[in-house]
Specification:
single chain, 87 residues
C-alpha cells in the first residue's frame, strides 16, 4: 500500500501504475500459492491486531513502535525468503 506508493513516487513513476512490488507478489515469487500468500498476509494482520490489543494500555508510541517493528521483521523475512528462492 503506502510503501509501494512512496517507492513509485520516489522513482518518478505514477503511484497508480501496476507492478509486482506488492507483498503478495513477493510471496508468490518465494513459491507460495495464492491461498498461502493470502493466508500469510491475513496472519500478519491478525498478529498486529493482537499485539495492538495486548498493548492498548501502554504508551501509544511503544505500541505503535512495537507493531512497526513486528511488521518490519516479517517483511524482511519474506524479502530474504524470496531472494533465496530466486537464486
Amino acid at each position: 500500500g503506502v510503501r509501494v506508493f512512496v517507492l513509485r513516487a520516489m522513482k518518478g513513476i505514477s503511484p497508480l501504475k501496476a507492478d509486482r512490488r506488492h507483498l503478495h507478489y513477493y510471496l508468490l515469487d518465494a513459491g507460495c500459492s495464492h491461498t498461502q500468500a493470502v493466508g500469510i498476509i491475513v496472519g500478519m494482520n491478525v498478529l498486529v491486531i493482537a499485539l495492538a490489543w495486548l498493548m492498548q494500555d501502554m504508551s501509544i508510541y511503544i505500541a505503535l513502535g512495537s507493531c512497526v517493528m513486528l511488521v518490519s521483521a516479517i517483511v524482511m523475512i519474506i524479502y530474504k525468503w524470496r531472494a533465496h528462492k530466486m537464486q
